[in-house]
Each structure stands twice: as structure tokens, then as C-alpha cells.
Amino acid sequence: MWSYSPPLRDMQFVIEDVLGAPAAWGDMPAFAGLDAATARAVLDEAGKFAAGVLAPINGAADLEGCIWKDGEVQTPAGYREAYRAFVEGGWAALACDPEDGGQGLPALLNAAFNEMIAAANHGWTMYPGLLHGAYDCLRAHGSAELKHRYLAKLASGKWLATMNLTEPQAGSDLALVRSKAEPADDGTHRITGSKIFISGGEHDLTDNIVHLVLARLPDAPAGTKGLSLFVAPKILPDGTRNAIRCDGFEKKMGIKGSATCAMSFDGATGWLIGEPHRGLSAMFVMMNSARLHVAMQGIGHLETAQRNAHAYAHERVQGRGRPIAEHPSVRRTLWSLRALVEGERVIAYWTAMLLDEAHHHPDAARRAEAEALVGLLTPVAKAFFTDNGHRGADEALQVWGGYGYVHEYGIEQSVRDSRIAMIYEGTNEIQAIDLLQRKVLDDGGANLDSLLTLLEADARRAAGDPVLFEFSDALQSEVAMARAATAMLLDGRASDSEWLLRVADDYLRAIGFTLLAWAWMRSAQAALPMAGTSAWHGDKIRASRFGVQWLLSESAWRWARVRAREATLPPVSA
Amino acid sequence: MWSYSPPLRDMQFVIEDVLGAPAAWGDMPAFAGLDAATARAVLDEAGKFAAGVLAPINGAADLEGCIWKDGEVQTPAGYREAYRAFVEGGWAALACDPEDGGQGLPALLNAAFNEMIAAANHGWTMYPGLLHGAYDCLRAHGSAELKHRYLAKLASGKWLATMNLTEPQAGSDLALVRSKAEPADDGTHRITGSKIFISGGEHDLTDNIVHLVLARLPDAPAGTKGLSLFVAPKILPDGTRNAIRCDGFEKKMGIKGSATCAMSFDGATGWLIGEPHRGLSAMFVMMNSARLHVAMQGIGHLETAQRNAHAYAHERVQGRGRPIAEHPSVRRTLWSLRALVEGERVIAYWTAMLLDEAHHHPDAARRAEAEALVGLLTPVAKAFFTDNGHRGADEALQVWGGYGYVHEYGIEQSVRDSRIAMIYEGTNEIQAIDLLQRKVLDDGGANLDSLLTLLEADARRAAGDPVLFEFSDALQSEVAMARAATAMLLDGRASDSEWLLRVADDYLRAIGFTLLAWAWMRSAQAALPMAGTSAWHGDKIRASRFGVQWLLSESAWRWARVRAREATLPPVSA
After folding, report:
1. How many domains does chain A have?
2. Do A310 and B572 touch (CB under 8 A)?
3. What is the mean pLDDT of chain B?
């Protein structure tokens, strides 16, 4: 049956052996007290919470769903108790500042934590999912009064938060947001409008819910530059109920334990966060970390899918009394999933390390460099990992045969739950355009060039090794393809402005493989010293080699599509 | 909102203009009375049934599901009425023999009919899904008494049928079937055992249910050569209830209107069909047509997904008041889905035509040739089209953004419903091995060579045309890759017997693209004479060209993986 066992040893291998994170923490005063042993202890406890508290209630919550009645939402059985354990364990506070009662741990450990809880119970994680984002946003842009009122409550998890962006007519295009905010005499605002797809817009986990809301002031210009951000709590500071109501929630494909609410603001009292009309930029504070959070959900789903498929393939006997794990097509699926998840974990944790450097490194040049790399890596991680998480779960399902289609084996729920991550926090198509247009081409390819130069330097260092040279060769060939295609796009962009929009999805996937080639090399490199005596480390090299030999060939196809400028894309008939 | 509109004009285009089926019917006495006009009228009525009766109850049935109580199963609202309309419309009888009350129409029209009903309501179609198979099986192998008892009842749809193969310990591996059949004094048998995943094992649509059951006689050898096939009706000829019980049904990912039952046979009375121990070969009578039926489900899902995505993309306005259909990434998705479904329809209908020739052509050599081609094409159609149906629906979902994840828009149900077709009737991995091992390599590649020679001849005929030459070139290049990789496998098979098992999935997908290259060429060729004056025909060429320019490049990647014999596939650690 489906279960979650946290991949603690794999996580530790990436954090310590592949990326050497503990040494990097030593360079940052914010993490001065943190060492490898403490990090291990934190992840060990996190694993117990994910496997022991969240995973056991995942399957039943999918069948049960939430209940809406007269504007109130009841979460599935066990959700309240799990949330209490989350607060008591201090998990809400993990990456919050110690001065707000937080633990001040690195984004890297938070990423590993998010991977675990998403793998164990994606639906449940939606409730605390925006807590850190709201905290970061209020901390960066809120007035002293708002900080005083909310930061500690959020850091402790006493209150939860939501993000109210989407409206029925305004999905990915926030320029179309119509909600209004009228200034009142006391300095507050009266917010009126309808919002949809609000995760945790209403629930029974906390006494208060802190809604962040995008709305327009009376004098607002049209478009996204007329959006302001407000905080509007469910319960007002005087203890009365604000004019905010949950009108119901969606019947969804998955994450059924999460109430995805339709919300009405009917002259609700709200407080402006930051400058008028600058709501989007206030929100963008949290964008990279929120996207990385979603990327971790992709990894979490892939991880659970591969572990459960692996276990099932060893239990299930067919044909001459042998487990199906011996069959080449099953073996190939298992190695594919494993190679992907191990490579992705290296990339994701590296991105999280860079996020920590961008915020906490004492050297401003290092901060700027890290920030630029994070901007480049984040859309790749979000789109590539969530695509692979969903497709990987879907591929894994096939290992169970007919049982895979049945709820009690768990994998079909993973397929459904993982699908949403390709849509929210900016659809994967939006990530691809963000990557290719804003992050790669708009600066003439300089930022990408820095990244590729880093990867190449690593490749050159490994080129002479009798085991690693094949990884080094593969990586250098991936880097060369990335450079060539990017140069073509930079050249041709002016004369064919639609080109990049036609091929952005292929471009992102291809860059994903460039990064995987690097990650597989680094993973093999870190495992090499122990591989002679440890089968576990030998498997790390085998997984990386499988990735290079079987999966990497997709990139040549993707790059061919990126380069095929002559391929036409006619308008679609009405 | 989600709807189904039958693609009658597209079907007619393939049947008449691309494949010239009506002329082929003229060569077969069984279809002497059939002309293009009659076929159109049949499909027109079929479309009304699918769109008017089945599609409207599809979404609600997914939410409602079936109800099990004390061994009885209640189907969702509207299912009984739809089944009555199916019987009254004569749809059960479509391809049955006129001497049993059937309409004796070609498998080609039955394939088009199956495409429509699966597109409109996959869950519902599971009930009559095995009717034709059981009919064919009893007709080919049943005694005169059994034929008399069942054929007319099945042909009219008065009774429905099931196929009882799978047992908990025996999924894809039927050698492990344990159900027993003890001969009784009166020539019948007492069947005892448990079966799972029995579609429509119990329901409220017909008074009687005709179960075909695989079981072992007392003297049966082990393995698949010890399986015998029995017919065991729910209601015995004397009107009493047989000892067959539905113990419940599965909670599944999709096709929730279909009751997938666990069945107990507790000394149930059964009659042997055909020879003892030859149950599998009796069942294999229906294998090609059953697999083609499933392939049509893949096409049906792709068709509905692309039509609904197309409609939504034109309705939904984002960014400067333009419909999202203008956005390159949406346009690319829409053309991808369209090119795939149009190419697949040509291949599927051609396969169905060959099935008709194999059964009904007066020339024995033509029958044998058609039979061999059907054997080769069927596993490709089953696996490639169901993969593409599911992945295509999943890709289409992205066009709706967040709404795609919500039940009422329909597409998430298509994603879930379409998933099962990759598993049942032989998993897609089994199809791939059947194709590469049994259909291609075991005869030294001769059968594949005949197919490729046919495609090549078509390519050569189009080579000189100023529009078609690009299609011809693409097809010739696909054929050359297929020949080269197959020759390598034939050479290397003896020294590396696992090779074909490692790459069978890629091989099948690559051959799928070879066939698509041909289908796109033929479609463009058929549209060409009208393309100057008809935008509809122009779109056929544009869809085919999009397929060649954007989708065909996947095959070079797949062939590269097939050829990569040096890529290792280690055992998976325990």
C-alpha cells in the first residue's frame, strides 16, 4: 500500500556531499550557529512529521474532501490535528526571522521540508502554503503597525494567510482585476469584489485568516500598474467579523482536502500594504520562493511515485515467480524516475542555497550574482519539475497495471494532485516565457552565459577522470547546444518577434536537461569516493549514468525544435 | 462548457476522400449493398446518439458513480435510458451478422461509431464494450446450442456480456489464473473462483448478463495452455439465478459510471466454449477488434479534448481583449492535438478497413495480406493512440488554466477517463513487446517490410508534386529510419536478447510516427484538389504540415534510443 518514507539519506547526500551547504552557511552570519548535524536533526524531525502525521491522512482526505455550509468550511478528518502538530513542532516558523519568533533556518532546509510535506500530503500543505509568502510580503512592505499585528502570529502559525489575486475574468492576466478599494476616514479601506481559486480562503484550522488582496484604488490607472495590495483579516482587530465570505469551493481533479474557495469582499475592511498602485511589486517579493516551493511539490510527487513504484515492483510477482521489478520495461521506468528525481533535487537545493546567498551573503556582489542565478533557475525549476512530477507519477502508475487505476493504491491520487502544480503560481507556459524572454534574451544572454560558464567549469574539472569523463562530455555537449540555440534566438529575435513565444516551452525543457546533465555529473562525482565499497553510492552513479544514457537524448530533440525557425505556426481557424 | 459534436465531416473525409472505402466495399460481397450515402446516414444517426443521448449524462455520472447494494449494482442517472436508446437504435447489431439479426456493417463504420461513443461518454460505453467480442467468440467457437441461445440476444443488445479473465494474483500474466471448472454429469461445468476488474460484471441495464470465464479443468496443464473458456449466464436457461455474485466494485480514477466488479463464482453453472484447454485461443478471436476498439477510445478522447480546447480558447479573452487562441503557445497546443487526431484517424480507419478485408475479401491472398497488416498495425494503434489520447487531454487541460482543474469544465474528467485505455486490453508495454517481438522480429522483419514498402510506394507517387514533396520526403526519411533500426535489432537480437525488451516502447512510438507521416501525406493529398477554394480543406493541409514540421521530430529521438544498444539498464536494487 501507498506510504511515504522521507529520503533523508538522499537529502543529506545532496546537501552535504554534492553541494557542501554547511560550509556555505559558515560564510553567512545569519546561519552562523547552523551545522550539518543540526540540519540533519531538523530534517529527521520533519520526516517524522511528514511520514507519521501527514501521510496517513492523505488518502482518506481525498475521498472525503471538505464540507461547505453557510460560508464555513470543514476540513477532512485529521487535518486539524495535523495542523496543531505543525504549529507545535515549530514548522511554521522554520524560515521566519528569530525576531518574530521564527527559527531563521535557511531556505534550503525549508525547501527540503516542503518537498517532504508535499510528498506526504499535497492537499493539506495548501493551507500553510502561503504563510511564508504573506510573512515575507508583510515584513518587506507592511507598516510597523501591520508588522506588529501579523508577523509573530504568522511565524507561529497561529493564523494562516491567503493570497487573493484571481477573479473570474482575470486568470493569468492580472491587468483585468476589478476589485475595488475605497479609502475610509480612519485610514483603512473598504474592499469590494469577487475572488476565485483562493486556497484556504476559509477553513477550521485557525481562528483568524489573514487575506492579502489585490484591488484598485479609486484613482488607479488601468492595467497591472493600478493594483494595490491590502491585508484584510477574517476577524478584525476589535474581534468582530470582517465583511468577507466564502461562497463555496471548487470540485477539483485533485488536492481535494484543500478548499479552493470563491470569496466575496463586501466592503471588507483592509489596510494598504506598501505604496498605492504598487501591489504587484509588493507581491513579487515572494515570487521566487513561492515558485521554488511549487517546484518542490513536483519533486515530492516524483519521489513518492518512484519509491512506491519501486516497492510495488518488488512485491508483485508475475511470470515464472519473479518480481516485475526484473522486467526491462519496469526497470527502465524505475531508473527513469529515480534519475530524474535525484538530478532535480540537486538543482532545486542549489537554487535554494542561492536564494539564501541572495538574502544573507555579506558580500553584495555575491548577493547580486546569486539573485541573478535564482531568477534564471526558478522558472526552470517550477515548470520542469512540476511537469516531470505529474508525468512521472503518471508513468509510475503503469507499474501497478490495473491496480494503479484504483484509489487505494495511492498512485492515481498522486497523478491528480500533482497536476495542479503545472497551473498555479504562474502556468508553466508563463514560466517558459519568463525564462526565455525576460531572463535569457532581455539581457542579451549574459545571465545565461554566466550560468553556462559555471557548469562548463565544473565539466572541465571532471574531464580527466576515468569515470566522470562521460558525464563531463555529456554536459559540455549540452552546454554547447544551449549556447548555439540561444545565439540563434538572439540573432533572429528582431526579425521574427514571435519565434521565442513559439518555442519557449521547448527551450525551458532543454535548459532543464542542461541542468540535469550538470546535476548528474555532480551527483556521480560526490558518490565516487564511496562507490567501491557502498552499493548505495554505486546506485547514485548508476542513476546518474542512466540519466545521461537514456534521458538526456530528449534535449537534442527539444533544441532541434527551438532552432526550427522555418516551422510555421498558422493562426487557428475560428 | 464541455460538449461533444461529432466530427462527421472529418470522418467522411477520411472514409471517402483519403481511403476510398466505398470503392473497397464494392469488392466485398458482404458489403454489396453499402454505398457512401448509406454510410453517411449511419454515422449521422450515430452522431446524434453520441451527442444527444450519451454526452449530456457524462459529467453527472462521473460525480454520481454507481451504487452497490447486496450484490446488485445501480448505474448512474440516465444510463438505463441511454442503453434503451442504444438497443432501439440497433447500435448493438451494427457489425453483427444479418442472420443473427445484425446489420452486417463494416468494422470501419463500427470503429467510427466507437470513436463517437467513447468521446461522448467513455464510462457508459464500458457496458456494451464487450458485446461484439463475446458475440464474435461465441460465433466462432460456440456449439450450435450456445449459438442458438446467445447470438441473437447479444446482437440485439437484449443481453450484455462480460469477460472474466483477471484474478487478484493474475493481472497481465494469465498463466496464474486459478479458477476451476468441474465437469458435471449433464455436460455442464461448475465454476469456482474469484475474478476482479470485471467491467459491467453486474448492472441494471439488462435482465441477463452473459459472462465468459477463463478457468481450469481438473486435468488442465499448468500455464496458459491449461485455460478453458466457459459461458456462465447470470440467469440460467431455466430462469433461476446462477451462483455468480458481485462482491463490490473498485473506486477508480475515472470511468466512474462503469462498475468494475469483483465477482465470485461459487460452483456456477457454465458451458464450455470450444476445445478444452484452448480458452485463450478462443478468446484471441476478438483480440484485434477489441484492441482497435480501445484505440478508438484514445482517438475519441483526443478529439473531444481538441474540440473543446479550441472552443474555449476562442471564448476566453485575456490580455488586450484578444482570445487566448491567438497566443502562440495555445495555438501550438491546438494544432498539435488536431494534427495528431487527424493523422490517427486515417491510420485507425485504414486498420479497420483491413480488418474488413481480412474477414470478407473474396481473394484469399488479399485476406492473408490484410490479416498480417492488421496484426502489425493493431498494437501500434492501441498503445500509441491511447498514450496520445491521455497525454493530449492532459496537454489540452492547460489551455483552460485553473478552470481545467475544475470538474464542470469537463477536461479533467477526460484526463482521468482516458488513462484506463493505456492499461486494459493488454497494457501498452505488452503491446510494444507484441509489436516488436512477435509482429516485427519473429518473422525476420518481412511483415514490417511489406508495410514500409506500401508506405514508400505512396511516398514515391507524391514525390513530384509541388505541395506534397515535403510530405513525401518526410515519409521516406521516416521509413529509412525504421528500416535501419529494425535491421540493427534483427542483427543484434541473438547476442543481446534483452535489447528489444529495453527499447520496445520507443520502437512502438517511433513506428507510430512513421505511420503518422504517411497519414499526414495522404490527408494533405486528399485535401489538395479543394484547398484553393475551401478553407476547411486548407486547414487539413495546414494540420498535416504542422504535424510534419513540429511533431515528427520526436521520431528521430525515439529511433536514437532504439539504436543505443550500448545504453545499459542495470538491475534495480531491492
Report:
1. 2
2. yes
3. 96
Query: B374, B405, B426 — which closes off a domain?
Result: B426
- pLDDT tens for each residue of A443-502: 999 999 999 999 999 999 999 999 999 999 999 999 999 999 999 999 999 999 999 999
DSSP letters along B206-260, please? SS-EEEEEEEB-TTPPSSGGGBEEEEEESB-TTSPBPSEEEEEE--BSS-TTS-E
Question: Is residue B175 domain-shared with residue B286, that is, in the same domain?
Answer: yes
Q: Is residue B275 part of a domain?
A: yes
Grid cell in block for residue A206? 485557525
Q: How far is A368 from chain B (nearest CA, A)?
A: 32
A398–B428 CB contact, under 8 Å: yes
Chain A residues with beta carbon closer than 8 angstroms to that of B420: 405
Rounded to the nearest angstrom, the minimum Cα separation between A550 and chain B is: 7
- Burial zone of A290 (CB within 10 Å; 0-12 exposed, 13-18 middle, 19+ buried): buried
Whether residue B371 is found in the same domain as residue B473: no
C-alpha cell at A42: 531538523
- By mean pLDDT, which of A170-184, A521-535, B193-207, B260-274 is the weakest? A170-184
Among A249, A278, A307, residue at a domain's last position: A278
CA distance B300 to B345: 10
pTM, to two decimals: 0.97
Does residue A150 fall inside a structural domain?
Answer: no
Asked if A284 reaches chain B (Cβ–Cβ under 8 Å), the answer is no
Residue B108 domain-assigned? yes
Q: Using CB atoms and an 8 Å cut-off, which of residues 324-383 of chain A contact chain B? A: 325-329, 331-332, 334-335
- Show which residues of A are catalytic: 425
C-alpha B557: how far from chain center? 26
Examine the domain organization and report whether B312 and B444 are in the same domain.
no
Q: Given a cut of 90, is residue B54 above it in pLDDT? A: yes
Do A375 and A439 meet the contact criterion of CB atoms below 8 Å apart? yes
Q: Quick one: pLDDT band at residue B256, thresholds 50, 70, 90?
A: very high
* Cβ-defined contact of A556 to B557 (cutoff 8 Å): yes
Residue of A nearest to B535 (CA): A573
Q: Which pLDDT score is estimated for B1? A: 79
CATH of the domain at A269: 2.40.110.20
Question: Closest to A402 (Cβ–Cβ): which among B171, B405, B415?
Answer: B171
Residue appearing with cell numbers 546561519:
A31
Question: Residue type at B24?
Answer: A
Beta bridge partner(s), residue A262: A248
User: Which residues of B are part of the catalytic machinery?
Assistant: 425
Within 8 A by CB and 6+ apart from A451, the residues are A373, A376, A377
Written as nine digits, the cell of B295 is 484505440
| Most A CBs within 10 Å, among B167, B249, B253, to test the A interface | B253
Nearest CA in chain A to B418: A405
Separation between Cα atoms, residue B409 and residue B403, nearest integer Å: 7
Q: Which residue in A525, A571, A545 sits closest to A14, CA to CA?
A: A525
Residue A105 lies in a domain: no
Q: Do B546 and A570 touch (CB under 8 A)?
A: yes
CA-based radius of gyration for chain B: 24
Q: How many CB pairs under 8 A join A and B?
A: 205
Nearest to A557 among B331, B419, B554 (CB): B554
Q: Which domain holds residue B215?
A: 1-426
For the question of an ipTM over 0.85, the answer is: yes
Among B390, B376, B302, B307, which Cα is nearest to B340's? B302
User: In this structure, are B232 and B344 located in the same domain?
Assistant: yes
B376-391, pLDDT tens digit by residue? 999 999 999 999 999 9
CATH code assigned at B136: 1.20.140.10
pLDDT in tens, B74-131: 999 999 999 999 999 999 999 899 999 999 999 999 999 999 999 999 999 999 999 9
Contact B504 A329 (CB under 8 A): yes
d(CA B419, CA B427): 11
